[in-house]
Design a protein that fits this description.
This protein is of the alpha+beta class. The chain has four domains: 53 residues; 100 residues, no CATH class; 293 residues, 2-Layer Sandwich (Chloramphenicol Acetyltransferase); 193 residues, Chloramphenicol acetyltransferase-like domain (Chloramphenicol Acetyltransferase, 2-Layer Sandwich). The strands form five sheets. Strands 13-7-6-10-11-12-3-18 form an eight-stranded mixed beta sheet, with helices on both faces. Strands 14-20-19-17-15-16 form a six-stranded mixed beta sheet. The radius of gyration is 30 Å and the shape is globular. Belongs to the carnitine/choline acetyltransferase family. It catalyses: (R)-carnitine + hexadecanoyl-CoA = O-hexadecanoyl-(R)-carnitine + CoA. It is found in: Mitochondrion outer membrane. It is a multi-pass membrane protein. InterPro entries: Carn_acyl_trans, CAT-like_dom_sf, Cho/carn_acyl_trans, Cho/carn_acyl_trans_2, CPT_N.
């Protein structure tokens, strides 16, 4: 009740002498400062809208145009070729303005129209340039004239852009032709099928093209004309939000802390800096101060990074996003808290947040009945969670507490375990660390939140991200900033505490209250989630023998090298090839998300088969093919999103396609993804090589397959995350990890025969 009394701005009592009014100036000052922050944000948003609206020009360029026109008019020259005179003749205010005033007003109107026309022309030119992607396919030293013209993008983008400045200039994702997509599909499955199987698929594809394909394509082209992106909304809806299975493990993914370094061993301090860094990043997103990269990419996914949750529905989930949130939801030992991080419009200092976190850690109160495992509802199947939410969380204290979690900027778990690469068996502990971030105890994360940050007892941290709102590169960019800001910008005192002053009058974090007569429902969801979590087999290992520096010396793309190694490792592990999923972004287009690179190609399979028989063949042809497939996927000529959308149209029309049904049911037994390092300037790995990120990973896509994530860190290390399921007797993450390491070594030895001898001479290089 003390907090409630402090929040009252005024009180009054009625006496025989009249009304006795008591004002709390401190509370009124808090209200004033909070309102001031809100208005500053509104003004900033209006300012950014204006700047974005005229990009690549600037608002000040309007004044330059006006002055230039007025100067030429002063010199008795009419640059408008009579248009200014026509405007002056039609001014409705001609009777109340002098002749000079009419001329100035006419010049202002003409200058504004000319300025707007120039902006439209510049934006049209920028859109044309951004629609050109052939520069990706050109060889070094053989640049065409069109590509030389394309470099004008630098000139048009010379003024510093805001985060969303390029949005309206980005091209729409094109719809590939049916013929091209089917040809590429058949080419991709040819090495995976026997002769009879390939002939059958060729026949099905031909029948589809002649009969149903063109009809579905017309609807898809109509959508492409109308919608900003013909894929993204259906991809979000049908691949993510309509899935009724658990999103834990199956959809959510994780990001890890530094490999070798833990900036502080104090849990509350690490939480204080981590939370501060995340809010500093949110501030940059809100102010649009994050600089787009040289190649303009769509930034639409950043809009729902914070203050977002996925709410369950019986048929489909819904993503809810709030404009702002000044608090985070915190879980510790079965209790939920609301922690305000703003006070009177001011972001609390890291030391103040640490102080508040420590209050939560020191709180001895036990969880209320059913509260401790409530988070399991977000880890189990979606249908039961939707029904329980509707029945027990639509009103009263449960609704208020659930609203606090769902409207929070993000979710924070103060874990009572210690994780990281530590102890006598660091490899096993890294695997346990990955599993902890992927699913935890199945009830101590809120998997519906866009971001769930985990801070462990020993100061290690990590995050779990919901997948429907954005893809891994967006979260990776956020996490890079968070780790770098925590370690290098905010820092810690000598005793491991956060820096900054403390206002001891801060009200304590608010304990959320629950009335939960649904322990049976929670137990059922927990049982489903626990079975899924127990089945996951994770293995994380740093590959230290060489990195991208050594690979580039062999004149090969590091990503192609790793993908070839994965193909070789899978063949040695299973004795066959499989459909391989590699995620590629399509953010060169507006609202673009991902496309699939089918990394298992005719060339890669031929290379692996030849290598197993004769260690002489070189992988350059297979690597170049992979690079070409990656470029096609990035530039809108992929296979899988087009086929997926054709399948969705067929479902809307109520028609069946044997070809599409078979294609969409094919399992991805090897699902891979590279975690991009986008801000290497934040990490000085030359002077501080110990500040290396572990990257992140995800669960297996197929029950009998592998999920492989990798991050190429610096010049000398590649970190791998491998996952599979214990229930499949043919998969083993540790065994497959060993196959990957050996395949990497064998490929490098093939490219550089002296490498093996150099490795023997430097045994410390080996892991």
């Amino acid at each position: 009740m003390a907090e409630a009394h402090q929040a009252v701005a005024f009180q009054f009592t009625i006496t025989h002498e009249g009304i006795d009014l008591h004002l709390s100036y401190q509370a009124l000052n808090q209200i004033y400062l909070s309102g001031l922050r809100s208005w500053k944000k509104r003004i900033s948003r209006i300012k950014n809208r204006i700047i974005k609206g005229v990009y690549p020009a600037s608002p000040s360029s309007w004044l330059f145009v006006v002055i230039a026109i007025l100067a030429t008019m002063y010199m008795q020259s009419d640059p408008s070729m009579g248009i200014i005179t026509k405007i002056r003749e039609h001014l409705p205010l001609s009777l109340s303005l002098s002749a000079q005033g009419q001329t100035v007003l006419s010049v202002l109107l003409f200058s504004t129209l000319l300025w707007l026309s120039l902006i439209l022309a510049l934006r049209f030119c920028l859109k044309l340039l951004l629609s050109y992607h052939q520069w990706m396919f050109e060889l070094h030293g053989r640049i065409s004239t069109k590509t030389k013209v394309w470099t004008l993008v630098r000139l048009l983008s010379s003024r510093k852009p805001l985060l969303y400045s390029y949005q309206t200039s980005l091209p729409h994702l094109p719809v590939p032709s049916i013929k091209d997509t089917l040809e590429r599909y058949l080419e991709s499955v040819k090495p995976l099928l026997d002769v009879a199987g390939f002939q059958r698929m060729t026949r099905l594809a031909a029948e589809f093209e002649k009969s149903l394909g063109n009809r579905l394509q017309k609807y898809l082209k109509l959508k492409a004309l109308w919608a900003t992106n013909y894929v993204s909304d259906w991809w979000e809806e049908y691949v993510y939000l309509r899935s009724r299975s658990p999103i834990m493990v199956n959809s959510n993914y994780y990001g890890m802390d530094f490999l070798y370094v833990t900036p502080t061993a104090t849990q509350a301090a690490r939480a204080g800096n981590t939370i501060t860094a995340l809010f500093l990043y949110r501030r940059k997103v809100n102010r649009e101060e994050l600089n787009p990269v040289f190649i303009p990419l769509c930034a639409a996914q950043c809009e729902r990074m914070f203050n977002t949750t996925r709410t369950p529905g019986e048929e489909t989930d819904v993503l809810q996003h709030w404009q702002d949130s000044e608090f985070v939801a915190v879980y510790h030992r079965g209790r939920y808290f609301r922690l305000w991080v703003y006070r009177a419009g001011r972001l609390l200092s890291p030391r103040e947040i640490q102080y508040q976190i420590q209050r939560i850690l020191d709180d001895p109160s036990p969880p209320s009945p059913g509260e401790d495992k409530l988070g399991a509802l977000t880890a189990g199947n979606r249908m039961p969670w939707a029904q329980v939410r509707k029945q027990f969380f639509s009103s009263g204290v449960n609704k208020r507490s659930l609203d606090c979690i769902e409207k929070a900027a993000f979710f924070v778990t103060l874990d009572d375990q210690e994780e990281g690469m530590m102890g006598e068996n660091p490899s096993v502990n890294l695997d346990r660390y990955a599993k902890s971030l992927l699913h935890g105890k199945c009830y101590d994360r809120w998997f519906d939140k866009s971001l769930s940050v985990v801070v462990y007892k020993n100061g290690k941290n990590g995050l779990n991200a919901e997948h429907s709102w954005a893809d891994a590169p967006i979260v990776a960019h956020l996490w890079e900033f968070t780790l770098a800001t925590d370690a290098f910008h905010l820092g810690y005192t000598a005793d491991g505490n956060c820096r900054g002053e403390i206002e001891h009058s801060l009200p304590p974090p608010q304990r959320l209250s629950w009335d939960i007569p649904l322990q049976t429902h929670v137990s059922e969801s927990l049982a489903v989630a626990q079975a899924l979590a127990d089945d996951v087999d994770c293995h994380v290992f740093p590959f230290r023998e060489f990195g991208k520096g050594c690979i580039k010396k062999m004149k090969m793309s590091p990503d192609s090298f790793v993908q070839l190694a994965l193909q070789l490792a899978y063949y040695r592990d299973r004795g066959t090839f499989c459909l391989t999923y590699e995620a590629s972004m399509t953010r060169l287009f507006r609202e673009g998300r991902t496309e699939t690179v089918r990394s298992s190609s005719n060339e890669s399979c031929a290379f692996v088969l030849a290598l197993e028989v004769n260690p002489a063949p070189l992988p350059f042809l297979a690597a170049e093919k992979h690079q070409n497939l990656y470029r096609l996927a990035m530039t809108g000529s992929g296979i899988d999103r087009h086929l997926f959308c054709l399948y969705v149209v067929s479902k809307y029309l109520g028609v069946e396609s044997p070809f599409l049904k078979e294609v969409l049911s094919e399992p991805w037994r090897l699902s891979t993804s590279q975690t991009p390092v986008q801000q290497m300037e934040l990490f000085d790995l030359v002077n501080h090589p110990e500040f290396i990120s572990l990257g992140g990973g995800f669960g297996p896509v197929a029950d009998d397959g592998y999920g492989v994530s990798y991050i190429i860190m610096g010049e000398e290390m590649i970190n791998f995350h491998v996952s599979c399921k214990h229930s499949c007797t043919e998969t083993d993450s540790h065994k497959f990890g060993s196959q990957i390491s050996q395949a990497m070594m064998d490929l490098m030895t093939l490219l550089n025969p002296d490498f093996k001898e150099a490795t023997k001479a430097n045994p410390d290089k080996q892991s």
